[in-house]
Amino acid sequence: MSEARVEDFQPHDTDALVRMWRASFEYGVGITDPHPLHEQVEYFHSKIVPFHRVRVVKMADVIVGFLAANAESVGQLHVRVDNIGQGIGSRLIRLAQAESSGSLWLFTFARNTRACRFYEHHGFIAVARGFEPTWQLEDVKYQWVKGVHAA
What CATH architecture does domain 4-145 belong to? Predict the structure, then answer.
């Protein structure tokens, strides 16, 4: 992997971040997001930024990943499709774990089997299954607790 830098999110990165996020989401979940891009930008600024520290990973000034997390949860973690498998997601989840209060929770969609395996590989345990009404898809709530290893 060429030099990857983790940086705090800057507003001028919004469009590139949201486009990468959407492509990563669509790839992982296997659906096309029907929402206009401006709605996702609005959601990002109203529901993600105020409640999470947002970091981007850049390689040659291209956003290849992003993490939105706080001490208790991971709100979003996405890697650019062309960069999946290069350790970017692992670097970001380890950062979230290191900055956590000792445990983290997150949701992902059950059909995103790559994400489920990824979180389980990093010590997260499925603690609940449910149904996400906006997307009409089954979701999985994962939890990680420092010092507790998945069986």
Answer: 3-Layer(aba) Sandwich (3.40)
